[in-house]
Amino acid sequence: MSIPYRIYLDEEQIPKKYYNIRADMPEQHDPLLNPTTDQPATLEDLKPVFCDELAKQELDTTTRYFDIPKPVQEFYKMFRPSPLIRAYNLEKALGTPAKIYYKFEGNNTSGSHKLNSAAAQVHYAKEQGLTSLTTETGAGQWGTALSMACAFYNLDLTVYMVRGSAEQKPYRKSVIETFGADIIPSPSNTTAVGRSILKEHPDTGGSLGCAISEAVETAVNTPNCRYVLGSVLNQVLLHQSIIGLESKAAMDSIDEYPDVVIGCAGGGSNLGGLIAPYMQDKLKERSDVRIVAVEPVSCPSLTRGRYVYDFCDTGKITPLARMYTLGSQFMPSADHAGGLRYHGMSPILSKLYHDGYMEAVSVQQTKVFEAAVLFAKHETILPAPESAHAIRTAIDEAMECKKTGEEKTILFGLTGTGYFDMQAYSSYLAGKMTDYIPSDSDLEAGFNQLPNVESIKSSSSTSVHSMT
Amino acid sequence: MSIPYRIYLDEEQIPKKYYNIRADMPEQHDPLLNPTTDQPATLEDLKPVFCDELAKQELDTTTRYFDIPKPVQEFYKMFRPSPLIRAYNLEKALGTPAKIYYKFEGNNTSGSHKLNSAAAQVHYAKEQGLTSLTTETGAGQWGTALSMACAFYNLDLTVYMVRGSAEQKPYRKSVIETFGADIIPSPSNTTAVGRSILKEHPDTGGSLGCAISEAVETAVNTPNCRYVLGSVLNQVLLHQSIIGLESKAAMDSIDEYPDVVIGCAGGGSNLGGLIAPYMQDKLKERSDVRIVAVEPVSCPSLTRGRYVYDFCDTGKITPLARMYTLGSQFMPSADHAGGLRYHGMSPILSKLYHDGYMEAVSVQQTKVFEAAVLFAKHETILPAPESAHAIRTAIDEAMECKKTGEEKTILFGLTGTGYFDMQAYSSYLAGKMTDYIPSDSDLEAGFNQLPNVESIKSSSSTSVHSMT
């Protein structure tokens, strides 16, 4: 039997456990540090900010599998399993001998994979008896996903949305409001950190780091409230492992195994989830699959950042994480469309990259939209700009196969749909989109504001990959 | 084994034939009339406007099944089968003993079921060697669907988009442009009929009937070009039968059969497709399933229209069809959000309704959006306003079951998603949405302009249902 276009697992094949990649990492990433003491953050340090269960997951380096709570399993059944799709028509259009597969996480109303972690996080919050949550959102997928989960579990939610995105995507805001959440463009006057940033940069379009600061400040000052985050954190990668586990089960069902796995990388939630079981194979030396992170040239944390301790937010109120970073004060150019605008990168992925288990490339957004339009015309799915970064690199890989004749099996993550990104598409179609490539001195300005962490300074270093 | 939330057929179970309900109708609807002769339209009359194969399908009353061309079958595999979903969480929220299922056609980039017919129509156009097509679009789903199919088959496309919709949904326009089609707000200066309408009503928001006139005029004046339509026509209902056939196969697979099938009705494309196999059962007296059409109170063609011959377009250049109509000059109030704004109704459905095989109800749009928001919060899918008409009535049926204790099985069609309708959602959430109910004299004005068709006048009559 030939391989179908869309491979759907049965409902009972949806994974019932999350996979914690840290249990298989030969070396752990450096610990989060409490910014007031420069000492490793403890469970007690994290509890005022995060739900208890999520704080535990954040620090757990040994539990290989976590049971997915039953109510979360039920929630997943409303939108999972997501299809693994064979890109027959894209292959044909490219004339490549490569086989291209993509795991499509966009067929839910949040328009992305973010709902996977939102469902889990809101469940744990509800279990703990919390009554409200705060978060930030950039491109808007995470805010939408969380508003959906909060509507379902009946929890109040305040979303700080990066102001530039809020202005560019008024309808994304409306969707979040439809699900009953409050949405506040960030920076705002509702927090001390917001007021301070507005004072210094009254016209700023905001940044994810800044929105995080505001959401955390509000959470710790509100009774029975916690902050939740849609990327970067270990807990999020844990929940998103469902993407990779499902992808692998679907590929197993058709006797396929990828030669290369490609994912877009902003904070790392999709990439970390998609690659999880393949990275496990690689760490256990069962496979030499290539794993490729794709990021925008305009926000190149892996390819041009430094592997050092830094704040996770612009307001410098979160714990310090050792990660690839452009500096917490870095804000991508206003020309940059869509998400993937975070200054740092998941500590887990940063460590794996630093240790050579993963590659990274950066791509220009005009090339990304070129790939997005080509993909849409042949595969009939309008991709999110973020996802289109992975499409760009998958196409580049497939075209390389066309040159060499190699019949590679390519798997990439199609994280979401672009229905709320039409302003960016219009700008591209009108030939008005530009590519911003930060100069070395632009980046230096960000690096100059990195925190001085004496206790771990000696172990920090510039990335060996930073020049690739 | 319990019934899963989402029932997906296997790829090889996607129907390979369309079902033509006319082959089983005890009486045929009255024939289309050539407006210049008042005589039944012949194949030769239709060929200048429609592709040859589609013109044939339009007139065929005896062929029960049409093979779906192989390339169209392949195209379908990119987005079909669509899921049949058990609304477990909506049932729970309502506390109803009813079982609610919905066939979800919105998980493709057109955001609706319209892609089913677009794929077929563009295939036939390509086979015939045509180089371009024209069409109209109201809410935008049809225009998007057709632009997707034209991009795939590499045919030029001009879309006349109802001006009010184009202004309310600028991003819908961008999506259509992303797939390479030209889009022109209607009425426009590009056609004689458009110029004439603009002269009389310079500020009009346009109507579907008017956009049809413009698209037809352009098609017949352009070499190697034809007009295609996304609803109303018999050929469209034929293609859309895939919705019903797939729904029935999925319900069969879990040993279910609906007591009531509910679909929203504008021109009838979704409703006619969804109900096709159930209507067959009913016509053959194998089932007494109830079939319910839901329309807006602001555009009540079935519930308050007349069953007479009328033009299919505002410009009066198309054939005359006997159907439930508000008069081809009827334009729904500007307050009316979304689609379902056509003045008439599929001749097939009109006949079935007239002969008592089908019920019809009309619903207010504020009640429709109330249902849409409730549905979104519990089922995690943001419905299109059009689809939410069916949700409203399904909820009403389920609540009736709650009163009576009946464990009915309800099936409704969720035709699409509402990502491009956020302006309407925002208006609803802000309490600014109003309900427009046309007065009898409003409707009388439309009826007064009905054509005087001497040859068939005696057989036309006011609907026996028009007062229900």
TrEMBL record, chains A, B:
Gene Ontology CC terms: cytoplasm
Annotated metabolic or biological route of this protein: Amino-acid biosynthesis; L-tryptophan biosynthesis; L-tryptophan from chorismate: step 5/5
Family matches, as Pfam families: PALP
Catalytic activities: (1S,2R)-1-C-(indol-3-yl)glycerol 3-phosphate + L-serine = D-glyceraldehyde 3-phosphate + L-tryptophan + H2O
Domain (Tryptophan synthase beta chain-like PALP) ranges: 80-416
The entry's keywords: Amino-acid biosynthesis, Aromatic amino acid biosynthesis, Lyase, Pyridoxal phosphate, Tryptophan biosynthesis
InterPro entries given in the database record: Trp_synth_b-like, Trp_synth_beta/beta-like, TrpB-like_PALP, TrpB-like_PALP_sf
EC number: 4.2.1.20
EC supergroup of this enzyme: lyase
GO molecular function: L-serine hydro-lyase (adding indole, L-tryptophan-forming) activity; pyridoxal phosphate binding; tryptophan synthase activity
Domain of life per record: Archaea
Membrane-spanning residues: none
Gene3D superfamilies noted in UniProt: 3.40.50.1100
Protein role: The beta subunit is responsible for the synthesis of L-tryptophan from indole and L-serine.
Protein family according to the UniProt entry: Belongs to the TrpB family.
Subunit organization: Tetramer of two alpha and two beta chains.
Protein name: tryptophan synthase
